[in-house]
Design goal:
about 675 residues; nine-stranded parallel sheet; Rossmann fold; 17 helices; about 30% helix; TIM Barrel; eleven-stranded mixed sheet; single chain; Immunoglobulin-like; alpha/beta
């Protein structure tokens, strides 16, 4: 069964309306509903008094219309009575100010009182719903994140350091505290890295970022253990925030879950200047799939214009359906739209659902009702199919955290350079896995390691073994610069990767804003390419055994190597000493795909995605037109059009914001 549904808040609406909502959900083809992740005040209206009767009635009603239920633990938004009694629970921001009541996720994950109350509400819910046949799973909390710098976190940080490193002598050596006379002689002397006291020692700051991430992993695990105990037959997930969220190591957070879910909003109030970028949404999906290298859910899929103070542009006719199918094409096995009906009160009055404020079905509802009918026809064809990419990009949260502490260049952003690489692969219709630097890479022919700034021996050995055994690896600037303590390595860059890459960085240049250089390719396969511009950073390379692929054209290092290729074992390691745009990346990536013997199986216009899910010889091809114009795509062979139940041959015509799902024949 394919999971297709909606997020619903019955506590926000008169109970006499619930039946009408359930009827409309059933007519839309929904079979799963998420409930209660923001209902703590209704579930425990006062300390120790629990009320599940209203939720029982809602669940029974929805189950009567064929809905399975996913319950959210409500710990993302604690009730006023709890926070009024225990103001020490409130999180402290990095500037030292304590948040006040009015928003959500304002708690400190290390606060012992809050952990006790969280245990109590989760245990009561788990006990109550463990035997309810309609309940199939749980979502823990909601969008975990936001670092806390409170006194309780300072104590927990000291305990974390003791457990991890044992002694202050190790800490002082690891962080190099002899600098500026910061040698610690007592654990209580170690501060939390408030921005008002910064900049802080990079080693301390990176370990604090790791500690904050671990704090949320631990907080989630407390709830996970309770749910496993009382509801062993239910699945457990959490709603992550895609690639863009950079406060938590999401690989760690996903480890104890049955599968990953995430919240996908392609067009929000915070990106009003640009239209929805389908490449960013694709990167979010691939990142979430890569956390456990398995199918995922989108448990909050955009259902209309979004916004708090500002209203985002309305999704164009077809876009809601297109965005949902895009998630499925990238490996989603469940889609739930957020939200059912647009709230009449509260901060999210303008975060539109499938129904508007008046509760009447309109264009958006009808679009998704159409999709619900399609899912009922093709859902069984989707189950069990997966993507099988031959290309991976390594996502390093340690490096990401380190760049938050020291950006190296004011124009550099880890996320931006990562997205540029991903965009080039998307343009060439290449499916990608996003995996950790320690992941098993044997299934991939080509691996990109963008700005692997913080690098330990395990990850370096993993990359060396991968290349030695025939893989093709791409390393980009500022890689191998730091060890796991965030100290700069005492050897030529790229540090532990220098032998693998067959070169050393002899010097580097950090560009002022607006300055560019350009490179000229020196190998036959790329010599016809015009000189692409490079910006932000330039590594001047000294090959030890690598071949020069490109040289700089300007400045005092004109003629110096900028890109090199090293044959290592039976594979290759390319070192790109520059950052650039698509005029640099597209020809290089196309050349690397040839070197890795990865065919360009699909071709099509910019703005059209083509992806493949497969299982046991069955091949499903998704064609997604993200443009406002009709497009034509050439695909060799004959296909069965699952949505229109007919045979189809090339060229395949696809309308604006439309989708084709084809099953390959023969």
């Amino acid at each position: 069964m394919f999971n297709f549904g909606v997020d619903y808040y019955p506590e926000q609406w008169p109970e006499e309306r619930w039946t009408k909502d359930a009827e409309l959900m059933a007519q839309a083809g929904f079979n799963v509903v998420r409930l209660a992740e923001f209902a703590w005040s209704r579930l425990e209206p006062e300390k120790g008094r629990f009320d599940f009767e209203w939720l029982d009635r809602a669940i029974a009603l929805l189950a009567g219309y064929g809905m399975h239920i996913v319950l959210g633990t409500p710990t993302a938004s604690p009730p006023p009575w709890l926070m009024a009694e225990h103001p020490e629970i409130f999180r402290v921001r990095s500037d030292g100010t304590r948040v006040t009541y009015g928003h959500r996720r304002g708690y400190c994950p290390n606060n012992l009182v809050y952990r006790d109350y969280s245990r109590a509400i989760v245990r009561k819910m788990a006990e109550h719903y463990s035997g309810n046949p309609a309940v199939v799973g749980w979502q823990i909390d909601n969008e975990l994140g936001d670092r806390c710098y409170c006194p309780r976190c300072a104590l927990a940080f000291h305990d974390w350091l003791r457990t991890r490193f044992g002694t202050l002598a190790v800490i002082n050596d690891r962080w190099g505290t002899v600098f500026w006379s910061h040698i610690y002689t007592d654990w209580t002397q170690i501060p939390v890295p408030l921005t008002i006291g910064g900049p802080h020692n990079p080693g301390l700051a990176l370990d604090y970022h790791r500690f904050c991430s671990d704090s949320y992993v631990d907080f989630m695990q407390i709830q996970n253990a309770i749910l496993r105990q009382f509801c062993p037959d239910h699945f457990i997930t959490h709603n992550f925030m895609g690639f863009v969220y950079d406060q938590i190591n999401q690989f760690d957070l996903s480890r104890s879950l049955d599968f990953v879910s995430w919240d996908n909003y392609p067009q929000m109030q915070w990106n009003m200047k640009d239209a929805a970028d389908p490449v960013k949404a694709s990167l979010g999906h691939d990142t979430m799939r890569g956390l456990k290298r398995s199918p995922f859910w989108v448990i909050e899929q955009q259902a209309g214009p979004s916004g708090w103070e500002i209203v985002s542009p309305a999704p164009r006719p077809g876009q809601l359906r297109l965005w949902a199918y895009q998630a499925i094409a990238h490996g989603a096995d469940g889609i739930l739209f957020f939200r059912w009906r647009t709230a009449q009160a509260g901060v999210e009055q303008y975060w539109h659902g499938l129904l508007d404020h008046d509760g009447r079905p309109g264009r958006r509802y009808e679009e998704i009702r159409r999709m619900g009918g399609e899912i009922q026809i093709i859902g069984e064809r989707l189950v069990g199919t997966k993507l099988k990419p031959q290309v991976a990009i390594l996502l390093s949260y340690d490096s990401r955290f380190a760049f938050q502490i020291q950006a190296n260049n004011p124009s550099f952003r880890y996320e931006t350079e990562f997205l540029k690489l991903y965009r080039a692969l998307q343009e060439l219709k290449i499916s990608v896995d996003i995996v950790s630097p320690e992941a098993n890479l044997q299934d991939y022919k080509l691996v990109f390691a963008p700005t692997l700034h913080v690098l330990d021996g395990q990850a370096a050995d993993n990359l060396s073994a991968y290349v030695s055994n025939g893989g093709v690896l791409v390393v980009t600037p500022r890689s191998g610069v730091k060890d796991e303590a965030n100290r700069i390595v005492g050897c030529p860059l790229p540090g532990l990767l220098a032998e693998l890459c067959g070169m050393e960085v002899s010097e580097y240049d950090s560009f002022p804003e607006g300055k560019t250089n350009s490179v000229r390719f020196t190998i036959p396969d790329l010599e016809g390419t015009s000189s692409p511009k490079v910006d932000i950073w330039a590594d001047l390379l000294h090959p030890t055994c690598a071949t020069v692929v490109a040289i700089y054209e300007h400045d005092y290092y004109a003629g110096s190597p900028a890109i090199t290729l090293n044959h290592y074992g039976t594979g290759y390691a390319l070192y790109m000493g520059v950052f650039g745009g698509q005029d640099l990346l597209l020809p290089v990536v196309r050349w690397l795909l040839q070197k890795a013997e990865i065919p360009l199986s699909f071709q099509g216009p910019t703005g059209v995605e083509i992806l493949k899910r497969e299982s046991d010889g069955r091949i499903l091809i998704f064609i997604l037109n993200h443009t406002g114009d009709g497009q034509a795509v050439d695909l060799p062979g004959v296909y069965w059009d699952l949505l229109h139940t007919s045979l189809i041959e090339s060229p395949i015509h696809i309308g604006p914001y439309d989708v084709s799902i084809l099953e390959q024949q023969g």
